[in-house]
Amino acid sequence: MNSKRFFFLGLTFMISVVLLIGCGHDESVHEKDNKAASEQDHIHHQNGQDSDTNQVLRILGEKDFAPISYEEDGEIKGISPDIIREVFDRMDHEISLELIPWARVQAKVAEGEADAFFSPYFTEERNRIYLFPEEPLLYEENVFFVPIDSDITFDGTLESLRPYTIGTILGYVSLEQVDTDNILTIDDQSTSTEQAIERLLNNRGIDLFMNTNYIVWNTLQEMGKTEEVKELSPPLNSFAAYLAFTREKDYTELAKEFDRILREMKEDGTYQSILDSYTK
């Protein structure tokens, strides 16, 4: 009787040991599996971060706005696209450029469908929607142009231009917005920059012509008349234009790097070379 009792006690003890050893092995496997899974998740997370950092940036601009941005023979050209390409080439960051109507440009970037756009002016309202770098992409100036042999001067006051007739483009209201006291005689009968330049050079009703500097110089270049017209100083007004990023993603560091490279280009002469290629 006692021997049977000892036999069952011994058997129970052995079974308990086996069960304990078995449970410990399973726990160890689960711990290793969990650790492996955690490491794998971390790897995927890191890869995801790298992918976001190196993603192709979709950058939008306004179509038919030469020489700032335009399309020719299927290729996107212009001052802004050339500057942006050079900046991101130096950053070794791939981009895609697309030109569409201005209203759609702003909407798509605001909603995060695109990553950035060019070249908006800074306003507080826009700054709440878009991330503006510190460094302007370019400055757009409204300036007065006269024939190369003209003795007309501009001292920065509208009063100095009272005796003259100033040509603008039909529908172009920048000059009227500045001339709140109706000092100036404004002729807005020209329907294009080319027509206004021809009128200016042939003494057909206007003494000066006012428009954005880049647009006029580019048109003069295409017309072969850069030596027949001069630009008066100072400009009527000037606006800084930027590459603005969506706020739907965090592009803070990217914007800082964009600033650094753009300043570098301005210092080494690349920036001015791009401007001159469209305006001289």
Brief overview:
This protein has nine helices and twelve strands.
Question: What structural keywords apply?
Answer:
280 residues, disordered N terminus, 2 domains, D-Maltodextrin-Binding Protein, domain 2, alpha/beta, 9 helices, two-stranded antiparallel ribbon, ten-stranded mixed beta sheet, 47% helix
Structure description:
Residues 31-44 have a biased composition (Basic and acidic residues). InterPro entries: Solute-binding_3/MltF_N (IPR001638). Strands 1, 4, 5, 6, 7, 8, 9, 10, 11 and 12 form a ten-stranded mixed sheet that branches. A two-stranded antiparallel sheet has the order 2-3. With 280 residues, the protein is α/β, with parallel strands linked by helices. It folds into two domains: 57-139 and 239-279, D-Maltodextrin-Binding Protein, domain 2 (3-Layer(aba) Sandwich); 141-238, 3-Layer(aba) Sandwich (D-Maltodextrin-Binding Protein, domain 2), CATH 3.40.190. The N and C termini lie far apart (116 Å). 47% of the residues lie in helices and 23% in strands.
Oligomer: single chain
Gyration radius, in Å: 33 Å
State which percent range the strand residues make up: 15-25%
Low-pLDDT ranges: 1-51
- Going by helix content, strand content and strand pairing, the class is alpha/beta
CATH uppermost class of the largest domain = Alpha Beta
